[in-house]
Amino acid sequence: MASRRILRIGGRDAADFLQGLVTNDIRRLDDGLVYAAILTPQGKYLADFFLARAGDDILLDVAEPLADGLARRLAMYKLRADVTIGDSGLQVQRGTGPAPDGALADPRHPALGWRAYTEAPEADDGSDWTALRVAHCIPETGIELTPDSYILEAGFERLNGVDFRKGCYVGQEVTARMKHKTELRKGLATVQVDGQAEPGTEIRAGDKPVGTLFSSAGGQGIAYLRFDRVQPGMQAGAAGVTMEQA
Length: 246
Hints:
By secondary structure, the protein is an alpha+beta fold. The protein has 2 domains: 4-180, Gyrase A, domain 2 (2-Layer Sandwich); 186-243, no CATH class. The chain contains 4 helices and 15 strands. It has a 6-stranded antiparallel barrel with strand order 10-13-12-11-14-15. A hairpin with a 2-residue loop joins β12 (208-217) and β13 (220-226). The mean pLDDT is 95.
């Protein structure tokens, strides 16, 4: 599985600090693991992560390639708040079988099982995570989720990654406008894939670009599509592509 870094956010102001920055409601930590993102002021994706309570602190579980940049951005925002940001020394374990003591359900979808944070080496139970993600159209950091992403186009509402009632956070105005004032014309969708195509292959309908194929497994894929251009007979390289009906 992709390597993760577990940061520890501490200090008297930690919860209020994160509440003003991330897309989800920190108060949900009382119920378990929280999935969220931090955005640019223009509403574009910077990083997605999981948040979990650890005594008086909050653990932040993020993809390793984003960890240093995210820590620097959090430090930039904290100003004079009583907040500490550092490595926890913990590792993530995850699986889809019986959950061990202390494990927390993945809030994005029941099929993704559980996550636990311990001092044991990072590990999983051998589940086919790509197949699970593709089957349920769940984007992955650095594959479907990139700096060009808008979280609503990536399905964050369906994945329990955004709260529209929590109040302000960085990028909230753009996200709320996309939710309430526009119909999404682009976004991630599950497609049927007949043949082989590398992640990042352009999808075309005749001479018109329709989108991009990303992860695929078992004859299905996750694609970013312009919905008004979707039609039968689309191609991603030599592979045939058909959008599944919602």
